[in-house]
Each structure stands twice: as C-alpha cells, then as structure tokens.
Design goal:
The complex is a heterodimer. By secondary structure, chain A is α/β, with parallel strands linked by helices. Chain A has 23 helices and twelve strands. In chain A, a hairpin with a 5-residue loop joins strand 1 and strand 2. Helix content of chain B is 65%, strand content 10%. In chain B, the strands form two sheets. A six-stranded mixed sheet of chain B has the order 6-7-8-3-9-10, sandwiched between helices. A four-stranded antiparallel sheet of chain B has the order 2-1-4-5, with helices on one face. The chains are: A alpha/beta, B alpha/beta. The interface between A and B is large, with 163 and 159 residues.
Amino acid sequence: MSSPSAMAPERTLGKAYDTRLMRRLWTFVRPHWKLLVAALSILPLTVGFEVAQPYLLKIAIDDHIATRHLPGLGNIVAIYLGLVVLQALGSYAQIYVLQLLGQRSMHDLRNTTYRHVIGQRAGFFDRMPVGRLLTRMTNDVANLNEMFSILVTLVHDMAKLVTIVVIMVVLNVKLTLMTFITLPLLFAVVEYSRRLMRHSFREIRVKLAAMNSYLQEHLSGLKVVQMFGREARASRHYDEINAAHRDAYLSAIRADASMYALVEAIGVISVATIAWFAGNRIGHGVLTVGLVVAFIEYINKFFIPVRDLSAKYTVMQSAMAATERIVGLLDTHEPDAPTRHEALAAVAPSGDKNAVELCDVHFAYRPGEQVLNGASLEVPRGSTVAVVGATGSGKSTIIKLIARLYEPQQGIIRVGGRDVRGVDAETLRRQITVVTQDVFLFAGTVADNVRLGTDGLSDAAIDDALDRVGMTEVLARRGETARAEVAEQGKNFSAGERQLIAFARALARDPEILVLDEATAHVDPEIEDKIERGLAALMTGRTTLVIAHRLSTIRHADSIAVMAHGRVAEHGSRQVLMDRGGLYARLERTFARAG
Amino acid sequence: MASALKPKTAWTHIARYWPMLVFGGVMLVVTNGLALVVPWLLGRVINALQGTDPAAEIPLLAVLMIAAALGQALSRIASRVSLFNAARKAEYDLRSELFSHLLTLDGEYFRHHPTGDVMSRLTNDVQTVRALWGPGILNLVNTSFLFVAAAVLMVGIDLELTLWAIIPYPSVVILGRVFGRRLYHRSRAVQDQLGHLSASLQEDLTGIGVIKAYTAERQRRGVFRRLSERLLDANMELTKVRGQLIPVLGSLASVGLVIVLWVGGKKVINKEIDLGQMIQFSAYLGLLVWPTMALGWMLSLVQRGLASWHRIEQVLAAKPTIVSGPGPDLDLEKARGDLEVRDLTIAINDRNILDGVTLRCAPGTMTALVGRTGSGKSTLVEALCRLIDIPDGTVFIDGRDVNELSLQNLRGAIGYAPQEAFLFSTTIAENIKFGFPDKYANGESHERMGWAADAAGLGRDLSALPDAADTVVGERGITLSGGQRQRVALARAISAEPRVLILDDSLSSVDAETERDILARLTEVMRGRTSILISHRVAVVRRADQIAVMDQGRIVEVGTHDELLAAGGVYEELYRTQIDSQVLATEMATAEAES
C-alpha cells in the first residue's frame, strides 16, 4: 500500500505538534494572509484592553479610594467601562475574522482534497472504502477547523501571558519574581500531566476507532450475525473494546483533573506568596495596596489560560491525527490515466480501419491473478461486435481498459488508430461512451443525469435523447417529465427505467464508439421491449462493442468474439464461426437442442 | 418507585452511579466552599496591609490561604474524578446496551434507518449525552452553589452593593435564552449543510466509475464546491452568534466588577465598608465570572444532550418484530430437514413480494429456485430462516411451525450463504469458525474449519495466501476476489453441517470451472441434507431434484429440468433466451479437452 493512511489510520498518533504537517496546512491558510494580518493587528488591541484593566484598578485604589477622591474615581470607572466595551467589540471582530480565515482555508482544503481524490485511478477506489474517504473530507476537516480556533486562542493567550509578565516587571520587579517563584512547579505539573494524557489519548483514539469500525462492520453484517446466532459473542467482543476505551478515559480523567486542580492551587499559592512578601515590605517605597490588588488580578488572568491548557491539548491531539490522515490522503498519488505519453502522442494514427484495437493485452487486478492473457481484438469502424464468454473470462475488464480506467501490464490498446496512452483521458473518454449493467444515477433531475459530463446540452437535446430511447413515454406514464426528481442512486426508478435513462445519457453524448455491458438480469417484460428498441436507437450508425448476454443481441451483431481464459478464442461473423465448428458453434447447438 | 417497566430517561444510566455522584457533588461543594474562603482571607490581607503591623498578621493568613488552596486541589481532584468517571461508566453501559439491542433488531428496522444514521446515534449522540452527564452535572452543581453562596456572602457584606452588583445578571439569563435558541437553529443549519455535503460526496465516491467514464469531473466538482460554500456560509452564520455570545457574557460579568468599583469605591470613601471588604466583595463576584460565561455553553450542552438522548431513546424503544417462539426446540441431532411452505404471502408497502407461495422440500432433496430479478426468490429463502417476519402457520420444518421455535434453534438448523458474501475483517479462519458455536475445543474447531474450507474449494487459494487461513481479510488486510469471498461465506455456511443448506446465488462470482468443482464436492457434503439453491446458471439448476420457477412473487412452475423444458413455459423461455455462461464454459472445457 502506498499510503500509510490507507492501512493504519491510527498508527502515528500522539505527536501534538509536527512542523511538517503544520507547514502543509499553512499552504491552505497562506492565500488568505490578509485576513491573518487583520486578525493579528486586532490582537494587540484586545490584549491591551484586557490587561489594562487591573492597572486601572491599582490607580483607582491608590490614587482615589485611598485618598478619598471621588470625582477621579468616576473618571477611572468611565475609562474602565469603555475598556470593557472595547474589549468585547475587539474580541468579536477577532473571532469573526479568524473564523472566516479558518472556514475559508477549510473550504479550500475540502475542494483540494475532493479534486485530488476524484483524480485518482479506479484501482484506488477498489481499495479505499467509501466510508473512510467520506470521514477524511467531512469529520477530519471539521476537526482541523477546531484545531485552527485553538491555535488562534493559543496565540492570543501567549500574547496575553507575555504582556502580563512585561507589565508586572515594569510595575515591580521584586513582586514579579515572588509571584513566579512557583513557576518551576507549574511547569513540572503541566509537563507531567501532558505526558500522562498523551499516552491515554493515544489509547483512547485507537480504542474509539476500533469500537466504531467494529460497530460499523457488525451493523453491515448484522444479517450474518443473526443468521449464525452469534449475537452474544459479538456483544462480548464489543464490550471488551468498549471497556478498554472507558478505562483509557478513566486514567485521562485522573491526569486532567490533577492538572486542572493543581494549576488552580498554584495560582492561589502565588497570591499567598506575594501577600506574605507585601506584608513585610508594605510602606517601603513603591509597594502599595493597589499594586498588590492589581498583581492578584494579573495572577488570575495568567493562570486561567494555563489551567485550560489540557482541554486545548485534547482538541490538538485529535486534530493533529486528523491532519495527518488528510495529508496522508493528499500524498497518495495514484493518478488516473497518467499524463499523455508525448512520444506516443506524436505518432500518427495508424490507418482508420479499426475504431478499437487490442494487441496482446495482459492484465491483472492483483499480482498473480491474471485476468487478460494476451487478448487481441479488432473492432472495425461502424460495426457491432458482440463479446461472449463465461464469468471471469475477462469481458468486463476489456471495457475498463479501453476507457483507460486501468492500465494494461503489457500490450497495446488503440482507439481511433491511436495508442490510448498517447491521448489524454478526457479526449479519450469523450470518444467512447460506456454503459454498464448497473446504472448509476445521481440525485437531481432526470435531465441532470442525461446532461452528466456534457455541460452545454440544451433542454431540447435532452428531450430528444429521452424521446429516442422511449423514456419520454415511460415518464409520461408516471405523470412526469425530464424534470422529474431522481432520488439518491435512482431508487425511485426501476432497474429497467434506469437502463433507459442511461441509454439517453449515452445517446446525448453522441459518441463515436459505444461500449455496452448488457444487463444479465431480466427485468419486467413490459420494459424489456422498450430496452431492446432503445438499444437499437443507441447503436444505430455507431461502432459498438457489446458484452452480450442475450442471443438476440448476438444474432444482430456483425461479428462475435468468444472469450476464454483471458483471450479472444474466436472472432468472426456468426456464419464463419458456425462453419468453423468451434466454441460458438457448440454454444448455438446447445441452445438449439434446448429449444 | 423505580420499577423495571418505567421508561428510561436521560438520567437513568447515570443514576445507577448515584454514590459516585453524591460523593462528587459533596466534594464539589467542599471545593467551592474552600474557594469562597480565599476572598475572605484576601480581604483580611488587604486590611492588614493598610494596618499598623502587617508583617505580624499576614503570615498566618498566607498559610491559611495555601492550606485552602491545597485542600481545594484535593477535593477538586476527587470531585472531578468521581463525577467524570461516573459519566464514562454510564457511557460504557449505554454503549453496551445499545449494541446488544441493535443486534436484536431486524431488517425491517434497518430499512427505515440507514446504517450511517444508526452509527451516528451510537457515536456522536452517546458522546453528547455523556457530556450532559459529566460536565453538565458538574457545572450545574458548580453554578447553582456558587451563585447562591456568593450571593449570601455578598449580602453579608453589604446589601445595597449586592443589589447594584447583580444588575447585569438578569440580562445574562435573557441573553442566554435568546442566544441559546439562535445557537440551536444555526447549529442545526450547519448540521444540515454538512449532511447535504456528505450525501453528495458519498454519491460521487460510489459512482466514481460513471464520473470518470463520462468525464463529469468538472461538473461534479462544481456541485461539491457549491455545497462546500454553503457549508462555509452556514458556519459563518453560526460564528456570528458564537462570536457575540462569549464577549457579551464576558463583558456583562466585567460590568458587575466596574459597578463594584464605582459604588463600592464610594462606600469605602464614605467609610460604610472598608477596602478589604470591597476587595473581598469583588473577589466573590469574580468567582461568578466563569460560571456566567459557561452558562451559554451549558445551556447548549443541556439542550444538545437532551436532543441526543431523544435520538438514542428511539433506538432503545425500537422493538424487534422477529422474536424467538415459545418452543419447545427441535432436536437438531435428529432433525430431518423437512421443509414446507403453505400459502405464504408477504407484502411490503402494499406490494405482494410473495403471493400465496406453497412449496415442499422433502428431506435430503435439492430444490432449485429460478426466476427474474425481483421475482421473490431471495425473500422466500429469507422467510425460511425468519430473516423477515412471516405469519403463523406458513412455514414448517419437520412439521413444526418455525414461529414456535427459538431463533437460535431454527437458525442452527439452517446454513445460509447469502448473495452478498459479507466477511468480517478478521482472519479467514475466524470467518469460517463464525459459522459454528464456540463449544468445540481448539483442535477440533480448527479441523472443522479446514474441512469446510476444502469443501468450499478454498484449499488452493489458501495455500497461495501469505498466512494461509490466518490471513486477515478486508480493510486492514488482503482483498479477496469476489469469488474467493463467496467461497469463504460458503465454507462458513457449511461448517456447522446444518440440516438445511441455502445457497442464494452464492457462487455467482466464482468462475465456472471452480463452481463445477465445488458443487461436485458439495453433493458429497449434502448427502442426506435438504438444500435450496438459487442460481442463474442452468447447468447448476438442471441437476436439482425439483426446480421451482418464480415470477412476480408466485411459484409458477415446479418440476424437474426435463419436465419443465417439455412443458414449454417460463423456464423453457429463460433457458433459451439467456446465454448461460456456465453452459458456455462447459462447452469450452469440453472443446478444449477434445482438441
């Protein structure tokens, strides 16, 4: 597996800070640097408004209350009130700007990730469960956004802490030193709890992920659990993980509670220390009651952000893990149909007899499980070729290779006389339209689905396409038009109706080459006729390669290719194959006998 | 009072831990009591500083302050640990209960509740309810105690000052309500947008093949971008409310302090109170700042917690429609596997999925079910093992109504390999062992697993895998091919040597040769057992003792292959119009052997 995130989502947790990841995130924030500058320029204001308040208190006490000067107190109170209002306004502006910055960056990140994921080759999606990709792009991005707010609060807090220390030093150096005599203790407490928590949080995340995937799996496979009567066993296993998750939390709670309580206690101890110190020095020089009160206020303002560190740490932990997973996804490069091979692009198209040509193609989805083993096939321009073969003979694989959803390990595929590796994927896929057995419809309208991949299509063209495959009639019978709503995955249409919409979709693209995987399952007989007629409308005047499951389709084809063991065993017109007396002839005879 | 029948409330689970809650609550009150001692000491310190001999008084006060701080730290740790631990333990109980309960629910429930939705109830909603129990209760006790105690103490200092100081607080309550409502609505809007984004994303990831084949990348990227933008906008609307709430509540608390400075300052100047009392008073008020700020947060916590509980309650209230019968159970050792269906009709949404089906499968015979997609074959076999609810007196095993038997007993008699081979992400061996009870000793259980794997034709595949049967499958391990998965599921179904074996198209992805091989072996395994086989492959079906043809929920023809072909009905038509890949494969194999 090329990406660590694909296999071990919770392998590398616990690093609360990782410069490489942060630098990566920075690339999403950088385009919005103006907002960042705006936020940073508000920062000194909000910090200033806040830390000026205790100083005002000092002036009020020392210069006015102690000296019994009432008018002056009024002024101080008015200024104080002004600061409170300004601080509120500043905080609001700061939160708003920072959130805007965060949200826009996350929007960019989401879109980049989407683009990246959609651009991966088909093999990537075979391996990567939809649920996991979905989590990356929704929950993990949301998680990141929370980290963003926390980071910003941290910057704010740091600025505040530094400013407080500076003001304290300016006011009175000795008192400041006395205040922070407890600092080593504070560091020790914070560091020790951080270590304890780091361990527990790693455990918690691993167990939570395990619990959720166990739950998901047993909900999806509930029928199996019930059918084999293994409910008790499943509950027992789930409880084991559940209990481990709980226990990991219990130790995290201990660490968290200790840190919170001890930091708070250290704050009070600091207050007691300066009270003691002031008691001995009061009256000597600059030490006043107001100063002591202001210091006590500063101590409170200093300790609250430190006390709340553990809460922030929790969020940072999970956000860093989320970042790591998103970056892991972005670092997975399995590009779909790698860029055009310039040397091959320069080669002039070889003749124009064949619309599609496979030369000695070898292919395996997984190493060692060869699906195509030197398959060669020519589809002449304007003809219809029916492919028949047993399950696993490689029929569907051919379709995927022609549209270059996968790359053959060996051999050449030409479309319109050009090696597909020399054509860019978009041009190639505009030439070919593939209609698969299981039709996928998107939520929206029928018209939206017909318009898939062809933006400029007019309403008239859509109606015409629906008309020609007979879908207009079907819609009319339902009392609907092309504007009819399609539910998720087209659930509100029957399998046959979905087929017709897919035919219209293919027809609207008017491709040169049509590649068709005929439905194996029989649908309701009423629509069966319509499908045959729709198919005929679609195939008229087009090169068609059809994987046939019905005798009627085979009989209408210009030639028939019989696949066996990853090779085209015979290819020719029905008459030629019958005369040859090979596989196809046997097949027909069997059916004749049966009939 | 608390009877077992009493419906569960949001508090039932946490109430079990009442001793921890009481202890935590008492410790919390102690903590806050000690917290209220500090301002009193502070007032004494301030007065002492203004007095004649501060150095004599203050050391004792400082020591008391440190003692209070340490006592507070201990009681705070005790309260947080015991309250949060109780919440985590209750969370564990709730998760366990939910998981076990979900395992009892049947297909009917999951038809109306997508897995994603149930998952989110068990993950997100449980967390939210836990937050209601942990931080919710803690803050509830904290806030109410502090408000009452601080108010009493403040009144003790000066009634008039108290009345002035609490002026901003009524507006806190009003604002809390207004903001609470807005927060709720805007959070809902964000959740809704996130839901839309996820749904569309899930669609794109599921339909990635179509997007690529139709080069619709740009179109879908546009859709995603628009949805992401709407999410951004919704988030910013939420930010506006959140961004206002914190500064507004914060400044209201500060306004209280400004009022104390003004009115209290005047009172100090007029000698109604002393400076120490004023500082003490504002320290009490300061203790209320955090609970006030947290009020808004707590409000949304409680609201969200209750809303989440409601969603959880719905899951717990869901009653399984399929429950064990009163018994007595069949003796599985002596059971013959005589199956009978009498006039069984099953309607879903007013449509008869099964319509008066009557069928007898004699002990030891093989019955094949054939018919178009949606004709009711899978529903019929699911009815046999009560995976769907059936009326009494319609399905019998050895003459006993299956509704009378316990589910464990009935399902123990039947081995079922469904169409979609669901495997758990554990080892292949564990997946196969899932099929039989844990009662066997290690060696015996391993032997049984090996036997089942061989019978299902897995022998060669296993020896090619890195760890043979101990290879882990699924997301975290190796990806098996569709055919291999089906064979593991088949091994699981036969591993318990059930009296009745049901194969619901469970070899459709297995290549023809292997299928033939497996069926030959199974004939041996199934000797003397009753089997029901759904298949699209005529070559498989033709060997059955009887073939039942289904169409639109009815059994339209029953007979042997030859009888049905001679009758010239639906079976004959199916046989003739569909190219059977099995027939093809048989023919090819014969041709190859001959050449």
